[in-house]
């Protein structure tokens, strides 16, 4: 199992894009990683855009970035809520500072924008936030997945296989 002993935070908030949370979580678990769902409250059940639930293991305030190897930010409308939590911004900034893999898909780029970590980076996202990404200092590329060092970004659910292959490769080589 190539990701045995790797620990990953998967952020969660209501209206996450169901596939963009669950496909990565299950894919990482298949490769042996431990994935913790982390929301504003521990043991809280959040609803995806299409009704698939996700119950958090921990609250943002319960986790320490130093104890994890990577972080995933799902898309949907959740990123607009996630970026309002100071603890989320701090987690993302600490992961970035230590060059740990940060995965973001679709609208998840909003969280990275609020964390102010995109200046000079190459990324992709849903085209709907392309201008936001560029205004944050990133070079936006319309590809299924873009890897710039420890940042792995993707556009939308049909790109999930390429996104998770790239994310798993970066995490395995960390």
Automatic annotation (TrEMBL):
SUPFAM superfamilies: Class I glutamine amidotransferase-like. InterPro entries: C56_PfpI-like, Class_I_gatase-like, DJ-1/PfpI. GO terms for molecular function: transferase activity. Keywords: Glutamine amidotransferase, Transferase. Transmembrane segments: none annotated. Gene3D superfamilies: 3.40.50.880. It comes from the Bacteria. Residues 6-167 form the DJ-1/PfpI domain. Belongs to the peptidase C56 family. This is Glutamine amidotransferase. It comes from Virgibacillus pantothenticus.
